[in-house]
Design a protein that fits this description.
single chain; alpha/beta; TIM Barrel; 8-stranded parallel β-barrel; two-stranded antiparallel sheet; globular
Length: 271
């Protein structure tokens, strides 16, 4: 999916919602555990319920990989099931150099057919550039995360610039906004503006809204650009809105609630 196609979907659905798919067997409804493939059946129901309100889905590969071969097959089926009008982000946070990075890219872009992949930039350009060799595929680079440990490294300063700012500054020299976006955590809303200033035309994938305490209106205030430039991710608040047989309906209601709030902002973008 290209940037233009993504923007078209945002305008069409009046939404910039990304639904995170984190299928946890210990949290999903008990009746699904009797299914042959509970991971896929859970994700399938969530996709069906939330697709009208979402422009992206983000399978977190760890929740699949931990189940071995069966988990990888469930991931493949889940990605294949996601409608083609939605951006598919494989949340794998890969980061290695040379041909290893290249094979990770082949795994998710060619075999799994994901549109985008989260990548950790700690090893520098040669751990990121191999992922950029694939046409119409996206690198979603970790820049400013919402976890408690982010302060251990991301805010260390050198010559007046925080490490997360250095990541953004350097990586915008590697790829255009057509192929690169940044992970920018919602719980650090004041700092979103710092990233936006350095990357005015790039999309941000913003986790942390909902269960982690991030506020959507604040994220838009500090992080949006003229053509939106945001994919706001919600996982637990949608996936586990109910633990009963009505889980899909509950997920739909949560997704709709977010879409209604997002629509108010989409209508004000200048495009």
């Amino acid at each position: 999916m290209t940037k233009a196609e993504l923007i078209t979907q945002i305008r069409k659905k009046e939404s910039f919602l990304c639904v995170g798919l984190d299928p946890d067997l210990s949290k999903m409804p008990a009746h699904l555990l009797q299914c042959e493939d509970p991971l896929f059946e859970f994700c399938k129901a969530i996709i069906d319920a939330t697709h009208p309100y979402a422009v992206a889905f983000k399978p977190n590969t760890a929740f699949f990989e931990c189940h071995g071969a069966a988990g990888w097959e469930a991931l493949r089926k889940t990605i294949a099931y996601i409608p083609k009008d939605c951006l598919i982000i494989a949340d794998a946070k890969r980061g290695d150099i040379g041909n290893t990075a290249g094979y990770y890219a082949k795994t998710f872009f060619e075999h799994m057919q994901a549109d985008a992949l989260t990548v950790a930039p700690y090893m520098g350009s040669d751990s990121v550039l191999p992922f950029l060799d694939f046409k119409n595929k996206w690198v979603v680079l970790l820049a400013l995360t919402s976890n408690v440990g982010a302060k251990d490294f991301q805010f260390l300063e050198n010559k007046g610039r925080a490490l997360f700012e250095e990541v953004v500054f350097k990586s915008t020299q590697w790829a255009t906004p057509e192929q690169l976006m940044f992970v920018v955590g919602a719980t650090r809303a004041d700092d979103i503006a710092r990233v936006r200033k350095m990357a005015p035309d790039y999309f941000f994938l913003v986790p942390g809204v909902g269960a982690q305490g991030g506020d959507l209106d604040t994220v838009v205030k500090f992080g949006a650009n003229a053509s939106c430039g945001l994919l706001v991710n919600s996982s637990r608040a949608i996936l586990y809105a109910s633990s009963g047989t009505d889980f899909a309906d509950a997920a739909k209601k949560e997704a709709l609630k977010m879409q209604v709030q997002m629509a108010q902002h989409v209508q004000r973008f200048s495009w």
